[in-house]
C-alpha cells in the first residue's frame, strides 16, 4: 500500500490526473521493435501499468501476437507492422497513434539489430544499415511524434501554465559508449543516438518532454544468442545472421560482476522506470544497464 500511495502522490504532484496506483494511467506509448525480446517485455510491463500501446515490429505475425497478449491483460493496443526504414512507415505509426488515441505521451525507440564485421571488411551496405536503423529512424520518429507532443505541450502551457510530462526514450548500447571489436558500424550508430538524446533533452525540456537513453550491455536476446542457432533477418535481399559465436558468450560473462547476461524483463524494467513519474527530474541521461560491466 505504501508503494501505491507513493505513486499516487507523484502523479498528483505532477498534475497528471486522478490519484491512481497505475504508473501510466492511459498514457499513449509507442514502442518500436516490440515483437520480441526487450521490446515485447516492455510492452507487457507498460500494459500492466495502465498504458495504451501503439506497437511496431518488422514482422506482422509477431506484431499481431504481442498486441493480442497486451489485450489479454485488459490493456488497449494497436499494431503497425512494417520496416521503419521504408518510406511512409514512420508516419503511418504516428498517424495511427493520433487516430486511435488522440495523443502521444511516451516514445520508445527500441527497434534495431546488429550486422557485425571488422573495420577493414565492413561493407558500405553494412555501415549505412546501422546508421539508418539506429540513428536516422529514431530521428525521423522523434520529429514526427514530436510535432504532436510539442503542439499539445504548447497548448497546455498556454491554458494552464504547465505542460503534462511526456517522454522520449532511445535505446543505445554499451558498445556505443565503450566501443567493441567487430562492431564499428554498430558502435558509431549507438554513440550517435546518445548525442541525439542529449540534444532533444536540451531543446524540448521547456515543453516538459524528457529524453533519456539506455545503454544495454549483455541482455539475452536473439542478438546475443548463439549464432549457430541460425537466427537471421532480411535486409533488402540479404539474410543477415544474428547472434555471436557460442564460445565467446563465456568470455563476456566473465567481465560482468553479476556473472550472467541480463534477462529481457530486467532490461524492460529500466525502460519502465525512466518513463515513470519516479524519474520526473531525469533528463538527458545515459543509463548503462550491464550488470556492472565496464565500471
TrEMBL record:
Belongs to the short-chain dehydrogenases/reductases (SDR) family. It comes from the Eukaryota. One of its GO terms (molecular function) is oxidoreductase activity, acting on the CH-OH group of donors, NAD or NADP as acceptor. GO terms for biological process: fatty acid biosynthetic process. InterPro entries: NAD(P)-bd_dom_sf, Sc_DH/Rdtase_CS, SDR_fam. Keywords: Oxidoreductase. It holds the Pfam family adh_short_C2. This is Short-chain dehydrogenase/reductase.
